[in-house]
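User: I'm writing a tutorial on reading structure tokens. Could you give me a worked example: one chain, its sequence, then its tokens, then a sentence or two explaining what the tokens reveal?
Assistant: Sure. Here is the example chain.
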Amino acid sequence: MARKPKKAAADGEGGEVEVPKSRKKLIVIAAVVLLAGGGGGAVMMKKRAAAHAEAEHSEQAAEVKKPAVFLDVREMLLNLSPDAGQDKAKYAKLRIALELKDAKVEGEVKPLMPRVEDALQVYMRDLRSSDLSGSLGLYRLREELLKRVNVAVYPARVEAVLFKDVIVQ
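And here are its predicted structure tokens:
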């Protein structure tokens, strides 16, 4: 049978009930066990989530590691439009490579190289030497060439246009 709680002091103070010490210990132990169990569970869930994320990352890395293929475009020598106030003609010599996803795409792009070279030359002839100055000019040129190359080789896709040599004289 359950114990009856002891009454407070015999002074007759409000009839407060004192909880036995063994019950206090039991409550403290239960609280500690619950906190430890919750903390342990949280740690285990974090480890499981981290392991799952790492497994997904390694699968993606395995897919990404396919070797890219680089296709060289013939060297181009172009005369540029003169800048405002200049009569002397300037020339640009360009060597570029096309970065392709894999060898299958290379087979699709190679027969279309005359179309690619034409698109590049038509665009480049309208440029001035000031358009090619600085890294910003080359960045813009790269983006424009990539757009034109992708239009020329559609439905195949070129990942990037890479400069091997750029000389403006």
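What the tokens reveal: The two ends are 105 Å apart (CA to CA). Residues 103 and 117 are 20 Å apart (CA to CA).
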